Amino acid sequence: MAGIIGNKKVNQKGYLLIESLVAFSILSLCMAIYIPFIVSMLKKVDAEKTAVEMYRIQYEQVQKIEQLQTTDNTWRTGGKVFTIEQITTTAQKGVRIKHEKEEISIEILSFQKVNP
Predict the structure, then answer these.
(1) Beta strands in the chain (DSSP E)
(2) Eight-class DSSP state of 106
(3) pLDDT tens profile 51-73
(4) Residue 53's pLDDT is what?
(5) How big is the CA angle at 20 (ends 15 and 25), to the nearest 5 degrees?
(6) pTM confidence score
(7) Whole-number Å distance between alpha carbons of 98 and 29
(8) Handedness of CA 100, 102, 107, 108 (dihedral sign)
(9) Rounded to the nearest 5°, which phi and psi values hold at 71?
């Protein structure tokens, strides 16, 4: 029986350590790629939420102008403060919404309905 081939034990003392280090390095590499991606996506989502909120405020203020009501000066929502300015020139009305460095504005030519 001593002459059977394949009966020798291979020295595997360091194999478990190397396998663990390889698995840890693969996991660390995946996390190093995943975390910055998620952070950038969360920043984009927050910027888009702010833009949507600005357009919603602008829509509501235009509705107030159409109904001949006064517009608001500031708007607080979601922990953010938006500044609202009403644009009035001789022939046009409009609304300008500001939040930090972002600004959107709209000018309305007329609210009059044309009768055919």
Answers:
(1) 74-77, 80-88, 93-99, 102-108
(2) E
(3) 999 999 999 988 888 888 888 89
(4) 93
(5) 130
(6) 0.67
(7) 41
(8) negative
(9) -85, 160
